Protein backbone atom coordinates (compact mmCIF):
# COMPACT_ATOMS: atom_id res chain seq x y z
CA UNK A 1 0.00 0.00 0.00
CA UNK A 2 1.45 3.36 -1.03
CA UNK A 3 0.63 6.67 0.62
CA UNK A 4 1.63 8.72 -2.39
CA UNK A 5 2.15 8.40 -6.09
CA UNK A 6 4.28 10.39 -8.49
CA UNK A 7 3.27 11.92 -11.78
CA UNK A 8 5.37 13.86 -14.22
CA UNK A 9 4.29 17.32 -15.26
CA UNK A 10 5.01 18.77 -18.69
CA UNK A 11 7.96 20.73 -17.30
CA UNK A 12 9.59 17.54 -16.04
CA UNK A 13 8.83 18.19 -12.37
CA UNK A 14 7.59 15.39 -10.18
CA UNK A 15 4.28 16.11 -8.47
CA UNK A 16 3.35 14.09 -5.42
CA UNK A 17 -0.30 13.57 -4.56
CA UNK A 18 -1.59 11.71 -1.54
CA UNK A 19 -3.98 8.87 -2.19
CA UNK A 20 -7.35 9.04 -0.42
CA UNK A 21 -7.56 7.69 3.12
CA UNK A 22 -10.35 5.20 3.76
CA UNK A 23 -10.90 6.59 7.26
CA UNK A 24 -11.23 10.16 6.04
CA UNK A 25 -13.66 9.01 3.33
CA UNK A 26 -15.82 7.28 5.95
CA UNK A 27 -15.89 10.35 8.23
CA UNK A 28 -16.80 12.62 5.32
CA UNK A 29 -19.58 10.21 4.31
CA UNK A 30 -20.96 10.36 7.85
CA UNK A 31 -21.00 14.16 7.78
CA UNK A 32 -22.65 14.47 4.36
CA UNK A 33 -23.91 11.58 2.26
CA UNK A 34 -21.81 11.27 -0.90
CA UNK A 35 -18.94 13.44 0.32
CA UNK A 36 -16.72 10.43 1.01
CA UNK A 37 -17.21 9.30 -2.58
CA UNK A 38 -16.28 12.77 -3.85
CA UNK A 39 -13.10 12.56 -1.76
CA UNK A 40 -12.35 9.13 -3.28
CA UNK A 41 -12.87 10.55 -6.80
CA UNK A 42 -16.19 8.88 -7.61
CA UNK A 43 -18.46 11.78 -8.48
CA UNK A 44 -21.22 9.73 -10.10
CA UNK A 45 -21.49 7.44 -7.10
CA UNK A 46 -21.51 10.49 -4.83
CA UNK A 47 -24.50 12.00 -6.62
CA UNK A 48 -26.42 8.73 -6.57
CA UNK A 49 -25.75 8.14 -2.86
CA UNK A 50 -26.71 11.70 -1.98
CA UNK A 51 -30.01 11.47 -3.84
CA UNK A 52 -30.85 7.98 -2.55
CA UNK A 53 -30.11 8.85 1.07
CA UNK A 54 -31.95 12.17 0.84
CA UNK A 55 -35.00 10.33 -0.49
CA UNK A 56 -34.62 7.66 2.22
CA UNK A 57 -34.61 10.27 4.98
CA UNK A 58 -37.52 12.09 3.39
CA UNK A 59 -39.61 8.92 2.99
CA UNK A 60 -39.00 7.37 6.41
CA UNK A 61 -36.11 7.73 8.83
CA UNK A 62 -35.12 4.03 9.02
CA UNK A 63 -34.40 3.54 5.28
CA UNK A 64 -32.41 6.76 5.32
CA UNK A 65 -30.27 5.56 8.23
CA UNK A 66 -29.72 2.19 6.58
CA UNK A 67 -28.74 3.76 3.26
CA UNK A 68 -26.47 6.21 5.08
CA UNK A 69 -24.66 3.36 6.85
CA UNK A 70 -24.21 1.48 3.57
CA UNK A 71 -22.92 4.67 1.94
CA UNK A 72 -20.28 5.14 4.66
CA UNK A 73 -19.10 1.56 4.12
CA UNK A 74 -19.09 2.08 0.35
CA UNK A 75 -17.04 5.30 0.62
CA UNK A 76 -14.56 3.52 2.88
CA UNK A 77 -14.18 0.72 0.32
CA UNK A 78 -13.88 3.19 -2.60
CA UNK A 79 -11.01 5.02 -0.91
CA UNK A 80 -9.40 1.72 0.08
CA UNK A 81 -9.52 0.55 -3.57
CA UNK A 82 -8.01 3.86 -4.67
CA UNK A 83 -5.00 3.03 -2.57
CA UNK A 84 -5.67 4.53 0.85
Q: What's a concise summary of this model?
A:
The protein is mainly alpha-helical and 84 residues long. The protein has four helices and two strands, in the order E-E-H-H-H-H.
Describe this protein's structure.
The chain is mostly helical and 84 residues long. It has one domain (20-81). Helix content is 63%, strand content 12%. The chain has four helices and two strands, in the order E-E-H-H-H-H. The protein has helices at residues 22-31, 35-39, 43-59, 61-81, and strands at 4-8, 14-18. Strands 1-2 form a two-stranded antiparallel sheet. A hairpin with a 5-residue loop joins strand 1 (4-8) and strand 2 (14-18). Helix 1 runs antiparallel to helix 4 and helix 3 (43-59) runs antiparallel to helix 4 (61-81). It is elongated and about 55 Å long.
Q: Could you estimate the helical fraction of the residues in percent?
A: 55-70%
Shape: elongated
Structure summary, number of beta strands: 2
Low-confidence stretches: 1-5
Q: What's the number of structural domains?
A: 1
Instruction: Give the helix/strand class.
Output: mainly alpha
Radius of gyration over C-alpha positions, nearest whole angstrom: 15 Å
Strands ordered across the widest β-sheet: 1-2
* Average pLDDT taken over every residue: 84
Instruction: Give the DSSP E fraction (strand runs of 2 or more residues).
Output: 5-15%
What's the helix count?
Answer: 4
Order of helices and strands: EEHHHH
Strand count, sense and barrel status of the largest sheet are:
2 strands, antiparallel
Distance between the termini: 7 Å
Amino acid sequence: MRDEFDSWSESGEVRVRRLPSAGVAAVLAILLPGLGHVYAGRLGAAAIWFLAISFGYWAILVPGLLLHAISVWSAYRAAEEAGG
